[in-house]
Amino acid sequence: MGRYSIKELETLSGIKAHTIRIWEKRHRLIIPQRTPTNIRFYSDDDLKKIINVSVLNNHGMKISKIAEMTDSQIQSEIVQLTTQKSEADLFIEQLIIAMVDMEEEQFEKILSHLIVKFGFEKMITDITYPFLEKIGILWQTGNIDPAQEHFISNLIRQKIIVAIDSLPFASKDAKRVVLFLPENELHELGLLFYHYILRKHGYKTFYLGQHVPQNDLVSVCKKHRPDFLVTALTVSSKGKKTQAYIDYTLENLPKIKVLATGYSSNQIDSENPNFKLFKDARSLLSLL
Fold this sequence. Notes:
Radius of gyration: 22 Å
Number of domains: 2
CATH architecture of the largest domain: Orthogonal Bundle
Oligomer: single chain
């Protein structure tokens, strides 16, 4: 069971802590539990209710009316909203609830609906990425366990792989790109998405995936002679090892450009003109 501080509730729901306290006292929408030292905390059910209440309130429903509704009535209103509205935040909030409950069918249903409604690329950039950033606080505070992390990552991963498989192969004379994660880098959702983007725009791709030893990367590149390498760097605790990895790659593959993104990419210290940073799909394509 999750155990959230009021600040975490604020971050995940978008409702100010002061407002949450008012809702508690005036409308008793949720009732916090207390630690032995009298510090308030909230459960998964509290998080889900606050998110749903904030959605209804943001769409014009008065708190006094919401407070009179049962949980099932609130959920029914939410379902109606998701079929009528197109705001990204509304769907992000519903993904958080499905994740907390580990409701695979609901999570899958929301993702499929988003692909139809927005298209695959917009679903990833406007909803999935912000969703993953928003729940980052759950990983940091231990309120999401490894099972939940694998649960959501694998469902999103499956969608990206299906989208990649639906694309045609590149022509024989297309520019070549190798996509990889250095050793100790395991979070590949971003890299998979860029694999999709590159395939969609006609590049011939070689997707090596996670935790690629530096010698193996160099060997593959010498055999297949790519024009570019693309990577995503997120593990800041491995900064020195990642720096050495990138330096080794640039030194041993002097004619290939290395394009990097991710939280830790700006920690790489390199004046090599073949090393470039990008922040999104558009900036990646501009470097190719």
